[in-house]
Structure formats: structure tokens, C-alpha cells
């Protein structure tokens, strides 16, 4: 009961035995108090609304500032943070060099502390250069010098792409008796009678699809060595390479869908729309195998013309298992048709991280600390088998999750609707069942980071190639990127694997296609 209500009740009781004029005065006071109470309630509601709006705007502003200025925040990917650090190191080294040139006689500055130099790989060929003294006699006393040891240092060097030519010579042999001519056949090739050998095709494909270089840049790189490779020729080669490699990508998709646990994510891609004279939005969908499961990892990219959830439903048609996704509504149809939803704890954590950056929210800091304990448990169980990891989660993670839910629920009751903190808590509470499902198993993932990490290089690379020229080009790129991405996940050098595969593929039997897949263990069939 507020003070205005208490005063009104007191006045009402006191007015019972008063004359009419006094009762009228009391009634006037009562009406005034009621108006003040109503105005106070209105102002209180307006204040709460303003506070919630201000909190939301503060969060959005902090997020935008991090996107523009942040160097170490979660707004930047690992590749972007590396680029920032690379620029910083380059500038520091340049400043030191300029200072040494400006005052060459000055005592050099103390060297900055650095991590130890990485050893040069032992598998690289060594070219020895010996530097002998000009004379074998001592320059001081004239006596003969005696070798007492060697000082050896190594420098890493590289040759740019080296073009060379294969000359295929086929001697012709004739039989004088029957007048027949015999010659050895030329090995089958991806492009029959074409100019490009498998190594050149692999070099162009890796440049375009792994290093995200537009074809005009590859054309310029070849021109520096007086080799003319027109963009139209390069484009034709990539079209034929894409067709040849698509069956391998399709096979990887088949193997991926045999897994009972998958990750899924998507990223927008611009696609050229020639009729409209501009680009339209397409989507690159990504599906990743479970890194906690046995067997080689696989990532599959699926290019589609839109972000409609039907594309995910079509790709996973007939598949039933646990699917780790974000909160995008396009996946909901899969969960209605038999798949089981897993929610990403990293997404939930990100909501609280943004609050900490925006206004150092103590509630968000507490949430981050509690979630951090869950990730520490996962780190401790990284080397365990599924059963041991399940026991660890049941023993240690479940109590932390139960306490986190109780705390989130209680905290939410004290917050007004619409605020940024309330929204962050609502995100977790709404998906709570899917968020904690991993703790009842030893082989379910805690977050969607594997597929996000796999898709990130493409998301950054599209700033170079800007858009896909057509839906067919997008699907071709997705097939090749599927193979390159899977090769990387399996610790293979994509360029070496691709060159070897393009040499073998034209004559390879279809019933042994699994042997060509970029997997560390190809006994998949």
C-alpha cells in the first residue's frame, strides 16, 4: 500500500463525523490524492519504458562501435584479428628500420621480446652455400688454419608459381608384316586435348576457391611470367573441373547424412541478376559432422537461391537425428518432422557478452562466469570417450546448468519486459530444453562453433569475389569448397590432394570413388 492510499483511507475514516463543509474539503483532498497516484503510476511506467529503450540503444551503439573499432572483441573473427596484429607488427618493424636508417651510428634499440622463431620444416629441400675464408693462412701470424667447427644458419626461400611444359611423346611403331601401326595411349584427362595439365588446373582452382582470388588476378599472376591465360579460358577450365568434382562432393554429402548428429548454419551470398542490372541475395548453407564422433570430419556446402527453410528440409530429407542450429525459424520444420533440436550455448553466451561490452552489466558478467564453468568442464572432457564424457557432464555440468536456470529465472522476474538484459535471458530460457540436451549424452556438442569456423573463410573471402555469377556458378563453387574444406578438416593439403585427384579421376572406377575422397581414413563405404 503506497503513502497516497494510506492518506486517503485516513482521511475517509476521519471524515465520518465531520459537518458537510468539512466532508467536502476531505473529498476534494481525496480526489487530488487519486489524481496524484494516477500521475505517479503513469510517470513510473514511462520511466521504465525509457530505461528499457535507453538500455537497448546503448547495447546497439556498443555493438556498432565494436564492429568499427574493436580489435580483440568477438565482433572480429580470428582471421580479422590476425590481420590487425599483422598490420601492427608491420608498422612497428617499419618504424624500427626507419629509425636505424636515420641514425645509423646510434646504438640499436633493445630488441622487442618475441616468441621463439618457428623451426623450418625438415621435409623441405636444402641448398647448401659454403662460405670459405679467402685465405687458408692466419691473417695475424701466417700459420695454416685448422677447421674446428661450422656455424650453420638457415633461411627460408620460395619460388613463385613455376610454369613448365609436359611434352607427351608417343613413338609410332609399324609392323611390316601386317602393316599395322602401334602407339601407347595418352592418359585420360579432365579436359581431353586441353592445354592445362592437372597441376595447373589445381593451381587455378585453389587460387579461386581456397584463396578467393578472382580470375583476373590469377590471369595477372601468370602474365608476370609471360604466360597468357585469358579469363575466358580459366573460366572454361573451372566449369569443367567443377563438373568432374561434383560426384565427389555428392558422395561426401551422402556420407555426412549417415551421421546421427549434425551442425547447420548459413551465410548470405550476393548473386548477379543480369536482367535487373544488380545482385540479389542467395544463401550458402553449411552442414558439418559431429567433431565428438569417431571417423573423419566432413563439411558440405549447399548453394541455394534463397534462405527459405525448405532448402534445409530438402537437403536433410528423410534424415533424423540431433541437429545443432541457431534460432533461425527456417529449421523448425525439420524438428516437426523428426529431427531433435540442439541449441548453441555460444549464441546464448554472445547475448550476455554484448551486454558486458555495452555497459558492464553485473547480471551479464555473472551469466558469463556461469557459462564459463560449463566450457571449462567441456575442456576437461575433451580427451575422454563418449561414456566418460557423459559421466563427467552428469556429475559436474548438470548441477551448474540447474543452478544457472534457477538464477536466470529468478533474475528475469525482477526485470521489466523489453530491456536488453531481459531479452538476453529470454533467449536462453525460451530454448532451455534444447540448450541443456547435450548434458544427457557424451557425444552431443555444446555449441555450433565447428560449422561457423568452417563457413567463416568463405564469408570473409566473398569480399574479394563480391558475388556469384549465377546459380550454377554458386553450386559449382559449393561443390569445390566442400572438397577443399573437408580436406583442411582432415589435415590434408588441399592443393596436393586436388592435383593428385585430377590426375586419377578420369580413369577411376565409380565403385572405388570413396578412395579419392579427401578423408584421413577413406574406408567409408
Please give a structural write-up:
By secondary structure, the chain is an alpha/beta fold. Among the domains are: 243-343 and 448-500 and 512-516, no CATH class; 345-440, no CATH class. It has 16 helices and seven strands. The protein has helices at 3-14, 20-69, 78-102, 198-210, 215-223, 231-256, 309-315, 332-336, 345-359, 362-380, 386-413, 420-430, 432-436, 449-465, 471-489, 494-504; strands spanning 173-174, 181-182, 261-273, 278-289, 299-304, 322-325, 340-343. A five-stranded mixed β-sheet has the order 5-4-3-6-7, sandwiched between helices. Strands 1-2 form a two-stranded antiparallel ribbon. The radius of gyration is 34 Å and the shape is elongated. Mean pLDDT is 83; it is low at 71-76.
Number of strands: 7
- Number of contiguous helices: 16
Succession of helices and strands: HHHEEHHHEEEHEHEHHHHHHHH
- Overall structural class, as computed from helix and strand content, comes to alpha/beta
Oligomer: single chain
- List low-confidence stretches: 71-76
Percent helix among the residues?
A: 40-55%
Strand order of the largest sheet: 5-4-3-6-7
Work out the strand percent: 5-15%
Largest sheet composition? 5 strands, mixed
Compute the CA-based radius of gyration. 34 Å
Shape category? elongated
Termini, distance in Å?
A: 74 Å
Mean of pLDDT: 83
Amino acid at each position: 500500500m503506497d503513502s497516497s492510499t494510506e492518506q486517503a483511507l485516513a482521511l475517509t475514516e476521519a471524515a465520518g463525523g465531520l459537518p458537510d463543509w468539512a466532508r467536502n474539503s476531505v473529498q476534494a483532498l481525496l480526489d487530488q490524492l487519486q489524481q496524484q497516484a494516477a500521475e505517479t503510476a503513469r510517470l513510473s511506467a514511462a520511466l521504465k519504458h525509457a530505461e528499457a529503450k535507453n538500455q537497448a540503444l546503448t547495447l546497439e551503439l556498443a555493438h556498432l562501435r565494436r564492429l568499427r573499432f574493436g580489435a580483440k572483441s568477438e565482433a572480429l573473427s580470428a582471421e580479422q584479428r590476425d590481420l590487425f596484429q599483422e598490420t601492427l607488427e608491420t608498422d612497428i618493424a617499419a618504424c624500427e628500420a626507419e629509425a636505424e636508417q636515420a641514425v645509423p651510428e646510434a646504438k640499436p634499440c633493445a630488441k622487442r621480446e618475441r616468441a621463439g622463431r618457428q623451426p623450418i620444416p625438415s621435409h623441405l629441400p636444402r641448398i647448401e652455400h659454403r662460405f670459405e675464408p679467402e685465405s687458408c693462412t692466419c691473417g695475424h701470424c701466417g700459420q695454416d688454419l685448422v677447421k674446428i667447427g661450422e656455424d650453420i644458419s638457415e633461411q627460408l626461400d620460395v619460388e613463385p608459381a613455376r610454369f613448365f611444359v609436359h611434352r607427351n611423346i608417343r613413338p609410332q611403331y609399324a609392323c611390316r608384316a601386317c602393316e599395322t601401326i602401334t602407339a601407347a595411349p595418352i592418359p585420360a584427362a579432365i579436359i581431353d586435348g586441353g592445354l592445362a595439365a592437372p597441376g595447373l588446373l589445381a593451381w587455378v582452382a585453389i587460387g579461386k576457391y581456397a584463396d578467393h582470388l578472382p580470375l583476373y588476378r590469377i590471369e595477372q599472376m601468370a602474365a608476370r611470367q609471360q604466360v597468357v591465360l585469358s579469363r575466358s579460358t580459366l573460366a572454361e577450365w573451372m566449369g569443367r573441373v567443377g563438373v568432374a568434382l561434383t560426384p565427389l562432393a555428392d558422395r561426401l554429402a551422402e556420407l555426412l547424412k549417415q551421421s546421427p548428429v549434425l551442425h547447420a548454419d548459413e551465410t548470405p551470398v550476393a548473386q548477379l541478376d543480369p536482367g535487373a542490372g544488380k545482385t540479389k541475395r542467395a544463401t550458402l548453407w553449411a552442414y558439418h559432422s559431429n567433431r565428438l564422433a569417431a571417423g573423419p570430419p566432413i563439411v558440405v556446402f549447399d548453394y541455394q537461391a534463397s534462405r527459405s527453410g525448405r532448402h534445409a528440409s530438402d537437403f536433410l530429407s528423410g534424415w533424423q537425428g540431433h541437429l545443432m542450429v541457431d534460432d533461425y525459424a527456417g529449421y523448425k520444420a525439420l524438428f516437426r518432422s523428426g529431427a531433435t533440436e540442439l541449441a548453441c550455448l555460444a549464441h546464448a553466451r554472445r547475448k550476455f557478452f554484448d551486454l558486458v561490452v555495452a555497459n558492464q552489466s553485473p547480471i551479464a558478467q555473472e551469466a558469463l562466469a556461469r557459462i564459463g564453468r560449463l566450457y571449462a568442464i567441456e575442456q576437461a572432457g575433451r580427451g575422454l570417450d563418449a561414456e566418460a564424457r557423459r559421466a563427467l557432464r552428469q556429475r559436474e555440468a548438470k548441477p551448474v546448468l540447474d543452478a544457472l536456470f534457477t538464477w536466470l529465472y529468478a533474475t528475469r522476474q525482477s526485470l521489466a519486459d523489453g530491456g536488453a538484459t531481459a531479452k538476453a535471458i529470454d533467449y536462453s530460457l525460451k530454448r532451455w530444453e534444447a540448450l541443456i540436451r547435450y548434458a544427457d549424452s557424451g557425444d552431443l556438442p555444446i555449441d555450433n562453433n565447428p560449422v561457423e569456423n568452417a563457413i567463416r573463410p568463405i564469408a570473409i573471402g566473398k569480399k574479394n569475389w563480391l558475388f556469384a555469377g549465377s546459380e550454377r556458378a554458386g553450386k559449382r563453387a559449393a561443390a569445390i569448397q566442400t572438397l577443399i574444406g573437408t580436406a583442411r578438416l582432415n589435415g590434408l593439403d588441399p592443393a596436393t590432394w586436388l592435383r593428385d585427384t585430377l590426375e586419377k579421376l578420369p580413369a577411376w572406377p565409380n565403385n572405388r570413388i570413396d578412395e579419392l575422397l579427401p578423408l584421413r581414413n577413406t574406408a567409408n563405404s
